[in-house]
Recover the amino acids of this structure.
């Protein structure tokens, strides 16, 4: 049985797709057979970040509606061979994602994969509800600002009440907080909420803190999951998060402002 | 309302106004066998609750034919289970004529009802996470209504309702969440959302919380919004009560 992980947030633009790409790549790199599904019907992005947009033939909705088999629609990643992508449809209506259809696809994927990562669309509408419905675990992507925290709180409430686990009265969905776009300098200046603030408000365990970084943007533009930028702090932070997701005990990093030394100030580095 | 015209003479009776909370049986259609089966099923879920209770039949959601509506059968089925049908609410003229024929009282079914009972339906929205509101409020006279206890955070967008007694929350109530109770509300965590105690008018109801950060607090309809709460007890453990129609916030260490 595969573990089903939804990457969700409520709010848009906080880094769900970036996170889905990196977490699925990280899981696959450790040898777990992983598939990442784009639930954002009509606003397909995951394929761009995974750099497979030119290889999309069939999509998730085609499979649900029986127009293609899963094997026809799954795209194998060129960098990590245990990673597959199931792209979203760009042309269909999001209502094409029926509960039964999604279940059928997830059940079929469960037979062969270790991890199924569901990249949720923003909002709390149908697509987002479908993405989280079958989840065993949820990575709640949050930016350190009040509106994002509020929306994450809302999605946590929905996970508790509208997921399959909640409806069936099973153990609740395991919740993880992933704080992205974290800038310790701005936290020190009081322009951003701190890790402690967000943890205190949301009251769920912290999976990781991804520092705000130009590397993330560059990687996205190049179609490279940022976790593969192993030298960068953002890449390492994602790698830590994947480790923790698998139960490893890793110290949190990149949470404090770097004191700029004399040399780095001289050479505008750091 | 007490009649005091003749204080010296003991009267046979006095008329006083009373407001009683009652269970409504919302009828969707009527078929004798289905009705009996459903009734038996409901009673088996909470046998003690239904014994000897009065009930009104609500016709506002009735979709069946008038000709199928047999109040004598309804009364009979209920009576066999020790439930007393006392009246009907709503319904069209024909339906109400049938009800009168069965010696049932006629209660108005107007929009007023929807307003006063709004929290009822709200509590049943699927998003009200955790345990559902008890379907059968305690009926055993003399026993206080059980408190509803919530162990999980009440998240933004969620609404938790205790229609009879107190509401006890052992977790935060987040901004954008709403908690309502007929009695007191206890929040053993920060209260960041809205808390409405004494929603049926109990002016003695109080709100207790470990950290007052609320968007709104209300007791028996008297409310204060966040702006008006900042000066006293903000982010502190407080109790809130109604004194002379004014909401008073008192830090718990000074209570």
């Amino acid at each position: 049985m595969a573990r089903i992980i939804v990457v969700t947030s409520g709010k848009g633009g906080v880094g769900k797709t970036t996170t889905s790409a990196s977490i699925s790549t990280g899981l696959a790199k450790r040898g777990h057979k992983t598939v990442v599904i784009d639930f954002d019907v009509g606003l397909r992005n995951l394929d761009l970040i995974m750099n497979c947009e030119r290889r999309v033939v069939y999509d998730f909705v085609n499979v649900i509606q029986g127009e293609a088999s899963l094997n026809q629609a799954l795209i194998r990643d060129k960098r990590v061979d245990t990673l597959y992508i199931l792209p979203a449809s760009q042309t269909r209506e999001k209502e094409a994602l029926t509960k039964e259809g999604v279940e059928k696809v997830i059940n079929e994927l469960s037979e062969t994969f270790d991890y199924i990562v569901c990249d949720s669309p923003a909002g709390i509408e149908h697509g987002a509800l479908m993405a989280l419905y079958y989840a065993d675990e949820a990575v709640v992507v949050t930016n350190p600002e009040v509106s994002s925290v509020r929306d994450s709180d809302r999605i946590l409430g929905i996970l508790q009440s509208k997921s399959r686990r909640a409806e069936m009265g099973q153990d609740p969905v395991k919740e993880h907080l992933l704080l992205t776009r974290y800038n310790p300098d701005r936290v020190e200046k009081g322009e951003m909420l701190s890790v402690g603030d967000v943890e205190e408000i949301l009251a769920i365990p912290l999976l990781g803190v991804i520092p705000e970084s130009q590397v993330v943007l560059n990687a996205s533009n190049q179609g490279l999951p940022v976790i593969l930028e192993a030298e960068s702090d953002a890449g390492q932070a994602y790698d830590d998060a994947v480790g923790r997701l698998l139960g490893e005990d890793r110290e949190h990093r990149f949470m404090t402002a770097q004191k700029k030394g004399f040399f780095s100030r001289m050479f505008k580095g750091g | 309302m007490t009649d005091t015209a003749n204080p010296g003479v003991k009267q046979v009776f006095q008329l006083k106004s009373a407001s009683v909370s009652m269970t409504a049986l919302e009828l969707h259609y009527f078929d004798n066998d289905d009705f009996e089966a459903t009734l038996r099923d409901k009673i088996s879920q909470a046998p003690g609750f239904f014994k000897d209770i009065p009930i009104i039949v609500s016709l506002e959601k009735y979709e069946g034919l008038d000709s199928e509506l047999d109040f004598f059968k309804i009364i009979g089925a209920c009576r066999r289970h020790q439930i007393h049908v006392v009246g009907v609410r709503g319904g069209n003229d024909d339906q109400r004529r049938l009800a009168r024929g069965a010696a049932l009282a006629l209660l108005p079914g107007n929009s007023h009802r929807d307003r006063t009972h709004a929290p009822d339906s709200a509590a049943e929205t699927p998003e009200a996470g955790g345990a559902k509101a008890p379907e059968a409020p305690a009926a055993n006279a003399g026993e206080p209504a059980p408190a509803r206890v919530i162990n999980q955070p009440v998240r933004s967008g969620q609404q938790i309702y205790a229609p009879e007694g107190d509401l006890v929350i052992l977790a935060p109530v987040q901004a954008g969440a709403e908690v309502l109770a007929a009695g007191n509300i206890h929040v053993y965590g920060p209260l960041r959302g809205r808390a409405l105690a004494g929603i049926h008018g109990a002016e003695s109801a109080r709100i207790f919380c470990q950290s007052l950060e609320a968007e709104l607090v209300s007791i028996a309809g008297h409310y204060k919004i966040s702006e008006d709460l900042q000066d006293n007890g903000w982010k502190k453990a407080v109790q809130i009560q109604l004194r002379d129609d004014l909401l008073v916030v008192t830090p718990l260490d000074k209570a």
Remarks:
- The radius of gyration of chain B is 22 Å.
- The helical segments of chain B are 32-45, 47-50, 71-80, 93-101, 111-116, 118-123, 226-229.
- Chain B has seven helices and 15 strands.
